[in-house]
Design a protein that fits this description.
Order of helices and strands of chain A: HHEEHHHHHHHHH
Bound molecules: adenosine-5'-diphosphate, magnesium ion
Radius of gyration of chain C: 19 Å
Number of strands of chain A: 2
Number of helices of chain C: 11
Radius of gyration of chain A: 25 Å
Chains: A mainly alpha (309), B mainly alpha (408), C alpha/beta (269)
Largest interface: A-B, 86 and 83 residues
Shape of chain A: globular
Distance between the termini of chain C: 33 Å
Largest sheet of chain C: 6 strands, mixed
Shape of chain C: globular
Oligomer: heterotrimer
Strand content of chain C: 15-25%
Distance between the termini of chain A: 55 Å
Chain lengths: 309, 408, 269
């Protein structure tokens, strides 16, 4: 009689195998990030072997598909920046205001209803926002400025910026709401007990404490706006336009990526590869924003010892 | 609370005009009025923000419904149709000359197929409801239309006689895309979406769950694990269009996966869905209490047996919830699929994951770019269908979460 | 013996109407259906320290919060009865709760300085109330408040550092400094030393004895010795009732009620 069942070679191998399988699965997630990076990087390098890197980041003329094609991406970056800026101008006050209302003024039950409602905005596919921007908002912008005798483009940066702003409201409001609620109640009480009004308490005590989280949410929102594609493809322009006028048509990094890759171009032409150069810029910028955002949230969590975020 | 404040202010106002009460109230402070007004404005601002966001949502959904509802109806006209050798050859001749610019080309094109299906039609003349073209349809729906006056006359007569009517639009659900607006439907896009999402889930679900199991149950908290964590986090934040670039460069150009196919689309979306599955599966695994694991070890089970037989089944509803949410996100994704060619014109539904296909959001995108007015309502209707599916999926996820919610 | 009589006589004089600061009349408080305070009647005297004692959950904190209307912040709360400060019922419709809190300061159990500099912690409320303007006067007020709170010597060289960097006892004194910077008449303290070590506790007790020269202080405490050391009057609460309220000495040595005696001698609580 054996007191213990002996460990068999067979079951040992099986365990090892399963462990290995699980580990490989985890490794895939890393491979994917690097896959994205390298697949873009290699093609981008190929592009920069054909065209000047310096002209790419400082040049002001973007004219692919012609004999003497030029790839100066500055007007594309400026268009991206302006549309993102408009989006943020819409989303930050509304998102933050909504977050403050939910966390400071609304009752628990009201908040439990409002938050999922706002998150519906985040669940709507962007192609739907794009259609709405193109068919409803853009003409409305044109008609509105017509009243003042100002001509606006049907592909105005303003229309796509506004709709993009609405899209990122929940990105900002959801995280900000969590962060504001994580600010300890004892601080609110201390301030109110000193005879401060609620709004004074919120502005002077609660918001400064929640600031790292709010900034983090905003960076996520910016990152989302920069990478947003469908809204701008459907509602913004194609023309690289170095201008500050929000009523003109402008183009963005994502629009030009789509434009370069849709249709039958030869893959190894600079026209097509320019998309990867733009993609690389987008990748790096959004990655940096995301890393900053995560670092800020971590700082906030450590400060208030919360781990619900 | 605010009504109380109002009264307070009202009284303070009264007080300021009445010196006597002012002296009696040692808590009267005129500077507070301004601060309370400011506090109220601030509150109204925050309230206004959320009201704006939610009314936008309502307006937006309303706008889609108003624009999309007409697409669920289509105009049909009751006329005589002659089926014989001659009309099968030249289908225009099957109907009276004055209707030729009214009836849909797509309907006429189908006459030979109709006869083939039902040979008894041959050499008869039937009075039946036939599909009219999109201009007439737009006229019937009260939209902008472009019809010559002489046809308009006929149309109005038919309409007055009750022989031109709006019927439920079955074509929208039974046809693929078409260059003829009245003949276009969303069926092939729905099938494309289903095939693509099957690929996505077959790849992302096991991979995501296995990664989560590894990270939660087996990995030690070392440099490696943290590195994987950071990567998963970053993966979730990469703009979706960049996954399209990956799909194009790696799957299509490197591995030769057929362009525009549900296979390449599904693989690309799988990479995007992966972090969502991983994060939710980890949360689900973490919520299984350690006592369950301890009990398993107490029975002499190996780690893998404990995870497989005791931990995973308990975490399963949570994992499902997360995966459904990931699925619904993948379902609405368009940008990366455009890059890998899934906006091709697909009249027929794909039969396999290797054939060219389109998906619902891509179909919406294509229709949104069409010049004919008739496509606007189809776009909005497509959006309604897509949103209904997404809402159902999310409702299912919430239901699962509620149903299996256990408070340990 | 003669001494006690003399004390009794002076205190009789002090207990006169003119030294009354706060009058509580038939105060009832409900948390939803939970009747947490039952018809409390009580007089609190100027420049005295009144201690509230009683077993946990008997309503001491609830009562304290009634005195500066902090209970208004809890949604389910309903108050009736009167709290009369300087001849005015603070629950009257024409009284602004913000103004009440300005004149009735509060110090909490857990030290809760704002995550701002020491200076800003003290200057925050007076600036918002418009009591002073930024600059010279503000510096003076901050200094004066910190001196009064017995913290000045420890922090005068690091006013720019965050208030949260101080030790627990220092934080609590900072909270007291922050409260007196608003120049209130009454200071409420809810177990201000229960989270502190004995040395910090001693400092805060000494501080209370100094502060009572200028303010009316009401303190909730779990620590009977503390009540004995600092309080002029002591009130014993039990299950939402005010059982007994008298001079501290009387309560401790010669209580009228059996329940008080049981509590004092440690039979429950
Ligand atoms: N915020 C609140 N909501 C509901 N009930 C409360 C709240 N605070 C206290 N109570 C109830 O009121 C009673 C008195 O509590 P409290 O004043 O905190 O007692 P003490 O400070 O004497 O320990 C208790 O029964 C408690 O459950
Ligand atoms: Mg208490």
């Amino acid at each position: 009689m054996k007191p213990f069942e002996l460990k068999t070679r067979h079951s040992d191998l099986k365990e090892q195998f399963i462990r290995f399988l699980l580990f490989s699965a985890a490794a895939v997630s890393i491979l994917t990030t690097f896959g994205v990076l390298f697949s873009i990087l290699f093609e981008a390098i190929e592009f920069f072997q054909m065209r000047s890197f310096w002209y790419f980041i400082t040049g002001t003329e973007w004219s692919p598909g012609v004999a003497d094609s030029k790839f100066g991406a500055l007007p594309i970056f400026s268009g991206t920046f302006i549309i993102t800026f408009i989006a943020l101008t819409v989303a930050l006050p509304i998102g933050l205001g909504s977050a403050i209302f939910m966390s400071e003024y609304a009752s628990f039950s009201l908040r439990d209803k409002l938050k999922p409602l706002l998150e519906i905005l985040a669940g709507i596919p962007t192609v739907v926002y794009g259609f709405f921007a193109a068919i409803t908002v853009a003409p409305a912008v044109v008609n509105f400025f017509q009243i003042f005798g100002i001509d606006a483009s049907f592909n105005s940066a303003l229309a796509s910026g506004i709709v993009m702003g609405i899209m990122i409201i929940p990105v900002i409001s959801s995280l900000s709401d969590d962060v504001i609620r994580a600010v300890p109640d004892s601080q609110r009480k201390a301030s109110l007990a000193l005879g401060m009004t609620k709004s004074e308490t919120i502005k002077a005590i609660v918001l400064p404490s929640a600031l790292p989280g709010i900034v983090s949410a905003t960076l996520l929102g910016v990152s989302k706006a920069l990478g947003e594609t469908m809204i701008v493809v459907m509602a913004a322009g194609m023309r690289p336009n170095l201008s500050w006028n929000m009523l003109e048509d402008m183009t963005t990094v994502t629009v030009r990526i789509v434009d370069a890759l849709v249709g039958d171009h030869e893959f190894n032409s600079p026209d097509t590869l320019s998309a990867f150069a733009l993609g690389l810029v987008l990748f790096i910028v959004t990655l940096v924003l995301n890393i900053m955002s995560v670092a800020l949230i971590r700082k906030f969590k450590e400060k208030y010892k919360v781990n619900t975020l | 609370m605010s009504s109380l404040m109002k009264k307070t202010n009202l009284n303070s106002k009264l007080n300021s005009s009445n010196k006597k009460t002012e002296v009696e109230n040692p808590f009267y402070d005129p500077s507070l009025q301004k601060r309370h007004a400011h506090a109220r404005r601030f509150k109204y601002f925050t309230m206004g923000s959320i009201i704006f966001a939610i009314s936008f949502l309502v307006f937006f959904l309303g706008d889609m419904i108003v624009k999309g509802m007409p697409a669920f109806q289509q105009s049909y006209m009751l006329i005589d149709v002659t089926y014989n050798e001659k009309t099968i050859d030249s289908t225009r001749k099957a109907i009276d000359k004055k209707y030729r610019r009214i009836v849909s080309r797509a309907w006429l094109r189908d006459i030979p197929a109709m006869v083939e299906q039902d040979p008894s039609l041959m050499n008869t003349t039937q009075t039946s409801w036939v599909l009219v073209n999109h201009q007439v349809d737009q006229y019937m729906k009260g939209h902008y239309y472009k019809i010559k006056d002489k046809y308009l006359q006929t149309i109005k007569e038919k309409q007055a006689a009750g022989e031109l009517e709006l019927h439920f639009n079955t074509i929208f659900f039974t046809q693929g895309d078409s260059k003829i607006p009245e003949n276009s439907g969303i069926k092939s896009a729905i099938i494309g979406s289903i095939l693509t999402l099957i690929v996505t889930m077959v790849v992302a679900f096991p991979l995501g769950v296995m990664t989560a199991v590894y990270l939660e149950e087996f990995a030690h908290d070392n440099y490696w694990t943290q590195f994987i964590e950071v990567n998963i986090n970053n993966l979730a934040a990469i703009p979706s269009i960049l996954f399209g670039l990956l799909g194009l460069a790696v799957f299509i150009n490197l591995f030769g996966v057929p362009r525009s196919s549900p296979l390449v689309g599904g693989l690309t979306l799988a990479l995007m869905t992966l972090p969502i599955v991983i994060v939710s599966a980890r949360a689900a695994l973490r919520s299984v209490p350690d006592s369950i694991r301890q009990a398993g070890y107490g029975l002499g089970l190996t780690k893998i047996q404990v995870v497989q037989d005791h931990v995973l089944p308990l975490a399963f509803p949570g994992i499902m919830t997360g995966s459904i949410i990931g699925l619904s996100q993948a379902m609405g994704e368009t940008a990366p699929l455009i890059i890998i060619g899934m906006i091709a014109f697909i009249p027929d539904s794909p039969d396999s994951i290797f054939q060219a296909a389109t998906v619902m959001p891509a179909q919406i995108f294509t229709w949104a770019g069409m010049p004919e007015r008739a496509y606007v309502e189809r776009t909005a209707a497509g959006i309604m269908v897509l949103l209904s599916i997404l809402i159902s999926l999310n409702a299912l996820a919430i239901y699962l979460r509620k149903k299996f919610e256990v408070n340990w | 013996m003669a001494n006690t009589t003399k004390d009794k006589m002076t205190s009789q004089k002090e207990k006169s109407e003119e030294n009354l600061k706060v009058k509580i009349r038939d105060l009832n408080l409900y948390y939803g259906d939970n009747h947490a305070l039952h018809a409390i009647n009580m007089d609190l005297y100027k420049n005295k320290i009144t201690a509230l004692i009683g077993p946990s959950g008997c309503g001491k904190s609830t009562f304290l919060r009634c005195l500066n209307r902090m209970n208004d912040l809890i949604r389910s709360v309903r108050v009736d009865g009167q709290v009369i400060i300087d001849e005015k019922n603070i629950y009257d419709k024409d009284v602004d709760e913000v103004a009440v809190r300005k004149r009735v300061g509060m110090v909490f159990q857990q030290p809760n300085p704002f995550p701002k500099s020491i200076y800003e912690n003290v200057a925050y409320a007076p600036l918002k109330h418009g009591l002073i303007k930024k600059g010279h006067y503000c510096d003076d007020l901050v200094e004066k408040s910190l001196i009064q709170a017995g913290l000045w010597n420890e922090v005068k060289d690091k006013l720019k550092e965050p208030g949260t960097s101080l030790s627990g006892g220092q934080q609590q004194r900072l909270c007291i400094a922050r409260t007196i910077a608003v120049q209130p008449d009454v200071i409420l303290m809810d177990e201000p030393t229960s989270a502190l070590d004995p040395i910090s506790t001693e400092k805060i007790e000494a501080l209370m004895l100094e502060l009572k020269e200028k303010y009316t202080i009401i303190i909730v405490t779990h620590n009977m010795q503390q009540a004995g050391r600092v309080a002029d009057y002591t009130a014993f609460f039990h299950l939402g009732d005010l059982i007994e309220y008298d001079e501290t000495e009387t309560i401790f040595i010669n209580p009228t009620e059996k329940k008080t005696e049981d509590y004092i001698t440690g039979r429950y609580g």
